[in-house]
């Protein structure tokens, strides 16, 4: 059997219209634009309204990706959504997206891995492409997280925003796609970031809000970003020099700075848009990928490193070449011509 690869043929996003700036937050909570910018790098974020639940944002991002790819929803074989705080315990967001976009009766399911949901979903999708199980997969990261913020808790409430991002992976026999990846978890640190359900047995009094221990998340994240990148590179047999862009989960610009220091590389190698959207959890990587591609900063055939961490605790990194290089740009070995001796 010929080796199969996966190329990204479409990408799309949905961001709610409602922009909430740090100055808006200053009016309501005991915080300031200066503190938020200095400690997190965030200037504004989007808040979803009641008519923008997770599955609606996810479906809009999916439709955007289909439109850009010129592909019909009926041509998809599978939908995977990385998401962790959905409106329903069941059905999955992916099933609601299947119905909303008019895909055939294809498999559709969610993956819950905190803010690492998109990397878990993407690397799962590539396994199906490479084994030949499916030819066209929609992978979405979508989160409507701001409705779970406790207004009085200024350390959590300033960080998050809502969004969805989608990519379509299509099978090809031209070399590209997932060169290597790593996924990990450490459930012994389950209390570092959590949100209880209404039927939660313990800590019921915490209410249905996200609670986290900011400094513990910060330290874990600063350490794990570089480590996960190195593991993904090792599995790919590549080095950082082979990577055009690093697209990190956008949780706090200081976490990215600390990882850059650890890895001994410049901040210019990272794609960062946290100032506009805050932490959008599973949506943050496809959203940054979209903006990078749309602005022309990332080229459609670039090799990118995606890296994330989140509740669980979980982490993951994936090195992928988005699409095959055009044949003309592949260096051909020139036939060596012997120079006749004089
Ligand atoms: O996707 C995973 C989700 N979680 C995260 O990504 C969180 C990662 N952690 C962080 O991003 C940072 O730890 C925070 C941004 C949450 C906090 O930054 P920090 O530099 O770790 O601040 P801190 O918690 O050490 O607090 C410093 C001070 C405290 O005051 P005192 O005790 O020094 O008087 C806080 O009460 O800043 C205060 N503070 C605030 N002040 C103004 C905390 N939040 C705010 C706020 N505005 N919003």
Report what the structure shows:
The chain has helices at about 20-30, 35-40, 55-70, 95-100, 115-130, 155, 215-235, 255-265, 275, 285-295, and strands spanning about 5-15, 20, 45, 80, 110, 135-145, 165-170, 175-185, 195, 210, 245-250, 305-310, 315-320. With about 350 residues, it is α/β, with parallel strands linked by helices. It folds into 2 domains: about 5-170, Thiolase/Chalcone synthase (Peroxisomal Thiolase, Chain A, domain 1, 3-Layer(aba) Sandwich), CATH 3.40.47; about 175-280 and about 285-340, Peroxisomal Thiolase, Chain A, domain 1 (3-Layer(aba) Sandwich), CATH 3.40.47. A hairpin with a 3-residue loop joins strand 12 (about 305-310) and strand 13 (about 315-320). Helix 3 crosses helix 4 (about 95-100) and helix 7 crosses helix 8. The longest helix has 23 residues, at about 215-235. Residues about 330-340 have low confidence and may be disordered. The structure holds oxa(dethia)-CoA. Oxa(dethia)-CoA binds next to helix 2, helix 6 and helix 7.
Label this structure with key terms.
alpha/beta, Peroxisomal Thiolase, Chain A, domain 1, five-stranded mixed β-sheet, 10 helices, disordered C terminus, binds oxa(dethia)-CoA
Shape: globular
Q: What share of the residues does DSSP label as strand, in percent? A: 15-25%
Number of discrete helical segments: 10
Helix fraction, binned, reads 25-40%
Radius of gyration: 21 Å
Fourth-tier CATH superfamily name of the largest domain: Thiolase/Chalcone synthase
């Amino acid at each position: 059997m010929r080796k199969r690869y996966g190329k990204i043929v479409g990408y799309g996003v949905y961001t709610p219209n409602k922009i909430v700036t740090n100055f808006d937050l200053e009016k309501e909570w005991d915080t300031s634009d200066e503190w938020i910018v200095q400690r997190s790098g965030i200037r504004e974020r989007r808040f979803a309204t009641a008519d923008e639940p997770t599955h609606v944002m996810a479906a809009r991002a999916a439709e955007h990706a289909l439109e850009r790819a010129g592909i019909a929803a009926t041509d998809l074989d599978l939908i995977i959504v990385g998401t962790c705080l959905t409106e329903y315990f069941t059905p999955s967001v992916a099933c609601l997206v299947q119905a909303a976009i008019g895909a055939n009766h294809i498999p559709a399911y969610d993956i819950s891995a905190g803010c690492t949901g998109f990397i878990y979903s993407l690397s799962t999708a590539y396994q199906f492409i490479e084994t030949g199980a499916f030819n066209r997969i929609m992978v979405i990261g979508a989160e409507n997280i701001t409705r779970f913020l406790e207004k009085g808790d200024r350390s959590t409430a300033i960080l998050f925003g809502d969004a969805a991002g989608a990519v379509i992976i299509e099978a090809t026999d031209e070399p590209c796609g997932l060169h290597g990846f790593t996924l990990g978890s450490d459930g012994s640190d389950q209390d570092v970031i959590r949100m209880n359900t209404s039927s939660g047995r313990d800590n019921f009094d915490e209410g249905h809000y996200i609670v986290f221990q900011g400094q513990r998340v910060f330290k874990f994240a600063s350490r794990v970003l570089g480590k996960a990148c190195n593991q993904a590179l090792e599995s790919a047999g590549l080095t950082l020099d082979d990577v055009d862009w690093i697209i990190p989960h956008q949780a706090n610009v200081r976490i990215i700075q600390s990882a850059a220091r650890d890895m001994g590389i410049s901040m210019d190698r990272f794609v960062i848009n946290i100032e506009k959207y805050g932490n959008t959890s599973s949506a943050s990587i496809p959203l940054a990928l979209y903006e990078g591609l749309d602005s022309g900063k990332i080229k459609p055939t670039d090799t990118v490193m995606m890296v994330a961490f989140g509740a669980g605790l979980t982490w993951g990194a994936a090195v992928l070449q988005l699409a095959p290089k055009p044949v003309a740009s592949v260096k051909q070995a020139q036939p060596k011509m012997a120079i006749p001796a004089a």
